[in-house]
Amino acid sequence: AFFAAVTVWRSDALLLDLVLLPAVVLVLLAGAGGGAVGWLLLLLGCVGAWAAARSVRRRRLWGKKGSTVYTANVENFLTTQKTTAAGMMLVCAVLFLPALALRPVLALPLDALQPVTERARAAALGAAIEWLPKISGGALNFHVSAAAGGVEDGSLTQSDGLALQGLEDLLVTTDEKPTETVYLRGFIGAEYDGHSWQPADAEQFDNAAASWKTDGDSRLAIANLPFLRAAYDGAAPQQMTVQRLHAGDTYTFAPYNAYFNDYYRLDGDGAAAGQTAQDDTFYYFPRGEAKTLLTARADADPSVLDRLESAYAAYAESRYLATPDGADYGTLQEFCDAAEKEHKLTGDADAIRTFVRSYLNEHCTYTSDPPQPADGADPVLYFLNESHAGSSTQFASAAVVLCRMLGLPARYVVGYAAPQSLFAESDGGWQAVLQDDNAHAWAEVYLAGQGWTPLETTPGMVSELTEDQLAANANAVPTADDAETPLPAATPAPEADPTAPQARAFWWLLPLAAVLAALAVWGIARARRTPADTVRAEFRALYKKMCRCGLSKGVSSDQEEFKQFLWEHTKTAAPQDVETLLALVQTAQFAPGPVSAQTAQQVRGLCRILRKNLHR
Predict the structure, then answer these.
(1) Terminus of the chain with fewer CB atoms < 10 Å: N or C?
(2) E strands within 119-195?
(3) Do the beta carbons of residue 260 and residue 268 sit within 8 Å?
(4) Collapsed DSSP state (helix, strand, coil) of residue 445
């Protein structure tokens, strides 16, 4: 409505409205609030469109000034623009009617438009991040965090998440084709405070590690423990290079069972800090191979590394079982205790993982746009007890809490997941480009003798089985024991209440319709105003303000008192403006022939100058 009014007031603002109206209407209908960057870009578009609108009139193509053809062209131009402006007002009314009246009253499902606006914003932002470095020669280089797709360190909300589809975050190169999903760890959350995940206390870890008699940096020693134990009997590791393209540089994204040299700095028992170099090259053991090698160590003679692993396993047992306090978590603990007895889960890590994965997949559904809890509410409890719908952040967080309550040490991890099918052969190796939709969150559990292992609970993701095994299982006939437990039936929607607010929508629409009709009539009347009407209206407005400033009523414009009053009460205006205005008004009123648009425009400009400077 504001843009329509501006168009009626200044007809040359039509281009501004045509540029901005669709974007603004779409955003408002979708119910999406604009961020600071979005509104600044909108403001920039306003300025640019307004400047462009000033050059719409090409009068030099309309004939010689003062000619009949020129006068007719000017009048046609104004009539066309203002008629279009009135039409735009009606368009505004039609477009904003659902947003202002029908949506809150009838609860129309207009939220379906929000994904459209999000995709448009994401596409624009992704294009800017990708092309600005190329255009600027590398001067403008931007990084995005793994949170862009809704996965943000320890945060469990999506308030600032944007799925930047098509933006390349990481380039992963391996010397052998992966046979399993490759997980690259970034953020590692150890403590859940009821709202978000926080990193582990580095000082607490250092104090505990002081008694383990590690050789050198205890942080690197524990991080390298799975690799060193797997390679103890001479097994050859594989090599992986992770090149950062647009991914955030807060963390080093590294695979499981990797070796960190002295160049890397770890946050206690947590994530590796981001490096200044663009490429990170790791020696590592794939999870399937590492599992086989580490299992074999259970029957071998214990080494110094095995004793160190036992010490760290005790630390993980005491450190990564904590859950928040509160009555709701007490109820959840009671449920886990009952499940532990019913399914005989005590001390059985494999059974616990299977139970947690099955429970979440049977009782919760995946959505890329999960419902958000009220301010101050616990996101995990909201997911488990109310919404039962979430993205990888909710599934991973709930899995960590359930595992801890069942006695299995667990942590929350954010990074990237690269399916085996994503890798393609290139220059003697295998490469995969990870985009924003590969950003992911998952749980990891500590298995004695094995180390930290991913626990994938998000529906549709693969972790424990390789993709070749899944393909083989897909061709097998399921037995009764393998059949999935059916999901609970959806709760039927309650019948509509005839006394609900929807039945009273008509009374909400009546005042709005009256206002819109009045605005439309006023807009059409303004659009049909002739140059002579403009002269009379502008001079009448000036006369009314003169009366308010002290001019005696009944004094006409041809009297000397009228002219003297203007001179005295508009001292900041040029005296010749008064003379020019009165001459133009007299000519427009009494001269034969139609009033030209140029005369009307000149009168309007002078009247507004005098009204602005008029004072008592």
Answers:
(1) C
(2) 168-174, 182-189, 191-192
(3) no
(4) strand
Q: What percent of the chain has pLDDT over 90?
A: 31
Residue 211 near residue 178, CB atoms below 8 Å: no
Amino acid code (one letter) for 100: L
Per-residue pLDDT tens over the stretch 491-527: 333 344 434 443 343 344 445 556 656 666 666 555 5
The token pair that represents 456 in the structure block: 């994938």
Q: Are 153 and 187 in contact (CB under 8 A)?
A: yes
Mapping DSSP to helix (H, G, I), strand (E, B) and coil, where does residue 158 land?
coil
Return the bridge partners of 444, or none: 411, 454
d(CA 458, CA 181): 14
Percentage helix, strand, coil, to 5, in the chain?
Answer: 50, 15, 35
Residue 278's nearest CA partner among 428, 131, 173 is: 173
Q: What confidence tier does 489 reach under pLDDT thresholds 50, 70, 90?
A: very low
pLDDT digits (tens, 9 = 90+) for 300-349: 778 899 999 999 999 999 999 999 988 899 999 999 999 999 999 998 99
Q: What was the pLDDT predicted at 254?
A: 93
- 408-442 burial code (b ≥16 CB/10 A, e <16): bbbbbbbbbbbebebbeeeeeebbbbbbbbbbbbb
Backbone dihedral angles phi then psi of residue 227, each to the nearest 5 degrees: -65, -50
Instruction: Decide the pairing of beta strands 365-366 and 389-390.
Output: parallel
Q: Are 167 and 144 in contact (CB under 8 A)?
A: yes
Distance of alpha carbon 573 from alpha carbon 546, whole angstroms: 15
